[in-house]
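Report of the visiting student (M.T.), summer placement. My assignment was to run the structure pipeline on a short list of targets and document each run. The first record concerns N-alpha-acetyltransferase 15.
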Amino acid sequence: MRLAICKGVPPLFNNIRNLYIDKEKVKIVEDVAIGFLDSITSFGTLTGKVGDVEPPTAILWVYHFLAQHFDYLRDCKRAMEFIDKALDHTPTLIEAYMVKARIYKHGGDMEKAADCMDEARSLDTADRYVNCKCAKYQLRANQVQKAEETCGLFTREGVAAAENLNEMQCMWFQTESGYAYKRLGKLGEALKKAHEIEKHFDEITEDQFDFHTYCMRKMTLRAYVRLLRLEDVLRSHKFYFKTAKLAIECYFRLHDKPLVSSNENAVTDTSKLSPKDLKNLHSKERRKEKKYQENKKDSKEKKENDKKADVLKDPPLDADLLCRVSDPLDQALKFLRPLQNLASNRIETHLLAYEVFSRKSKRLLMLQSVKRAHTIDPNHPTLHEHLVKLAVKVSESTDMKESISAVFERELKTLLGRKDMKQFNADFLEENSRSLLHRLSGCRMLCLLDPTKVDDALALITDLADNLEDRTLENCTLIYNTLLEGTFGECSDLTREYFLKCRSLFPLASVFSKYDGATGSLNGVDATLSDRSEPLCDGVV
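After the run finished, the structure tokens were exported:
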């Protein structure tokens, strides 16, 4: 560490970050770094009273390292103090602005994080890495237009940045854009990005046919075999998984709250509709969509030039059409099937499958999804909710065939550990008493099984004791949004009290800056339990 600080090595923290697995080593690293700071402040050296005087930049890199150290420990206040000292020492250090942006991101203020990263970008406009990082932060802050302008500095002139990035198959940008549009409620634009990425994977599959004859002609058989193996598992790539998850969640929203006009932001709340009214609404929407597509087709046929162009290339994706589909669940299944085949080792795949089949009332497929998820992580909080809900649904069913009922009875008895639902949920809460996420899932099911236990559930999920293992900003935001949405009924006083607790714990978080009774998102990731698989940052924890 001493040599790296003397030389001014910016990635020093990343080089030793693997030591942070051990808490004792974390304490040692902190003591050494604080010792360096005290020594260089008092004597101008890193070795105490004896030793050579260090260059003026040495203290800068000590500040830089300590800021990253405390940011990793999520002590945002101390991290901000050290990075501000580093910027006071050298206001033109790009790395310092990037660290400050990361501190704001982990602290929960994505807009300020994007501003700091943009400041870093402005100090070196020729740096592509910082440019891309700035664009990603802007997308996480839902600033899609600014992000396109930022990327436009390095794309082809005369062509829109989004169009050029699509041609270059820049999937990270399209994925982040899709999630930004989803958070903004623009489901059509989000689905457009998802389908664009789907087309990229189709093109990769089609391009392999040009490679077959080349490999045989040049006798590059090893590369040929690698290509064939890649094509077999192409859609197991992380970009496809994130894209499929985005599309499926958008289709869930379209199913739960169908669009009622050409304006994609105009949705109707179906939670208060009866099954008959909901069916009529879907039928009405299908008729509207059919008429809309016919009018669209007629207008296109009148233009001969457009007709010829359509023969040569695929028609452009229409965001309005994508969000007005009559069968959102069937569309979601198209993205789900590749995940079930190629990403079956991820529990999120089976949790999404359960959500699809639950909306389609496919009980056996719901059971299949629960069983597959149970083999991966039987203690997952979302799986616990799905399992209890499935057991409740089966117990309340009166139209189930005897053979199917026998299957459910046998399988649920195994999954529930031969316990009744209330005891199963009580044991789950007791075994995971130090986890906020497990508490939240257990309390939701507690209220489902016994509505009189709402007060007990609220007391449990709003308890922010120091011994909790996952008392993070993300989890606290999730619980706060759950309280605001009324999942546990009217509890405005308790919600405000919980808000004040969280604001004292996370002073930088924008979601806890002002109590206005509105749900918020964090770090560019929707604060919902289904989104817990999404990373909150890229490359740096």
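The CA atoms of residues 67 and 79 lie 4 Å apart. Residues 262-266, 527-541 have pLDDT under 50 and may be disordered. I thank the supervising group for their guidance throughout the placement.
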